[in-house]
Amino acid sequence: MARSALLGSSLAKKYWMALTGLFLSIFLIAHLAGNLQLLDMSPDGQLKFNEYAKFMTTFPLVKIVSYVLYASILFHAFDGILLAIQNRKARPVRYVHEKSSANRTWYSGQMALLGTLIMVFIVLHMKAFWYEMHWGELGMDSNGNKDLYTLVAVTFTQLWYVVVYVISMAVLAFHLLHGFSSAFQSLGANHPRYTPVIKSVGVFFAVIVPIFFALIPVWMFINA
Amino acid sequence: MGNMKLNLKIWRQKGPKDTGAMKTYPVNDVSEDMSFLEMLDVLNDNLVRKNEEPIAFDHDCREGICGSCSLFINGEPHGPGRGITTCQLHMRKFKDGDTIHVEPWRSAAFPVIKDLAVDRSAFDRIQAAGGFISVNTNGNLVDGNALPIPKVDADTAFDAATCIGCGACVATCPNGSAMLFVSAKVSQLSLLPQGRPEAKERVLNMVEQMDKEGFGNCSNTGACEVECPKGISLEHIARMNREYMVAGVTKK
């Protein structure tokens, strides 16, 4: 009983969904903070960013956290798919006429679809940069670091890439718009004094973070 | 009599194993003062006069307290309007010439018995799994008023206790989840001192039964809270999540 209560049950799946989701949200802040350095497109900015990229791929503590991150992404996706399958099974015969707009936002009912789109983006994104940084043939900058900066700058001269990034960040925004405050509810944090604050922070987070992420490729495309 | 003409599209299904289909019924002479159920009574009366099989639907008290009347009307449980059951829905909510869709609750855990009537005994089994308190009945009862209970707790417990187990939460949830119902039953007891001794077991057993019945998982869309005829709050779901987590971690 106690085992399934923390692993297999419907509520347990939601706890893990919430915990991994919140961890991924924290990661977004760290990832954004680091990548905003890309906005500095001077030769000095290039060297600084490459130095930072080297640190992020070699410093042991960061490496440990990054493994936790990979596991979280995979678990969040796997758990999400499992939940979505169970939820579909819970209503084998669909309604002929359903007015979902009467009682919920469209994105709160489409978390699995939004999540799948984000997963596609992550694969594309990691192939473009993470894979190249670890196993690709990258040139060196004048400090002898792998020149990830130039790879990013060249990638974002392609319009379609920029468009895919901007659309993906819009998808992320809607995923977070529901996901952020939803995670707190799943973990049982609901209080008349704090829940309105959590909801406001959630909306702010869901709008600001994706906008800044989307700003990077757009900025680099314009200033290329 | 009334003067509204309506076009009803109603789910007809002969029995649990029949596939069923939507069927169209025109109804004339509908008064705007009729309740939705009275309008169906008129339709059934017409069907019986024509020697056709009347439409099966659940109803009992017809004053919004028993939770029997179900019906997914125009895409919402208990139709348009908030804080009401189907028997409290009046035809003045509709316009002359409207087409109205009427479907049964859709959930793997609520199989259709016939037409619009579904089997909601899954709720009874969840309730039986833990929705009670054990008390002495040998004459040594403690006076309930002897236990001090904070006013806020008493009110919140009472709010939870207003759940009539109608199943609208399940019907409207995109995931077919029964979390609002189960959390109301858990909260109602766990907020009061009489419910505390069995609180951990209760939440674990009721959630286990909920999962067994094949209800979906909560994704916090909040649709249930909007459609609940008794206005049961999502705060109860959060309380159940807390109680379950603590019980899961600490139960021996």
Features:
heterodimer, A: about 220 residues, elongated, B: alpha+beta, Ubiquitin-like (UB roll), Fumarate Reductase Iron-sulfur Protein, Chain B, domain 2, five-stranded mixed beta sheet, two-stranded antiparallel sheet, about 35% helix
Structure description:
- The complex is a heterodimer of chains A (about 220) and B (about 250).
- By secondary structure, chain A is mainly alpha-helical.
- Chain A has one domain (about 10-90, about 110-220).
- Chain A contains 8 helices and no strands.
- In chain A, helix 2 (about 10-35) crosses helix 7 (about 160-185) and helix 2 (about 10-35) crosses helix 8.
- Chain B is of the alpha+beta class and about 250 residues long.
- Chain B folds into 2 domains: about 5-115, Ubiquitin-like (UB roll), CATH 3.10.20; about 120-250, Alpha-helical ferredoxin (Fumarate Reductase Iron-sulfur Protein, Chain B, domain 2, Orthogonal Bundle), CATH 1.10.1060.10.
- Chain B is about 35% helix and about 15% strand.
- Chain B has helices at about 35-50, 120-130, 150-160, 170, 180-190, 200-210, 225, 235-250, and strands at about 5-10, 20-30, 70-75, 75, 100-105, 110-115, 115-120.
- In chain B, strands 2-1-5-3-4 form a 5-stranded mixed beta sheet.
- In chain B, strand 3 (about 70-75) and strand 4 (about 75) form a beta hairpin.
- In chain B, helix 2 runs antiparallel to helix 6 (about 200-210), helix 3 (about 150-160) packs antiparallel against helix 5 (about 180-190) and helix 6 crosses helix 8 (about 235-250).
- The longest helix of chain B is centred in the last third of the chain and has 16 residues, at about 235-250.
- Chains A and B meet through helix 1, helix 2, helix 4 and helix 7 of A and helix 6, helix 7 and helix 8 of B.
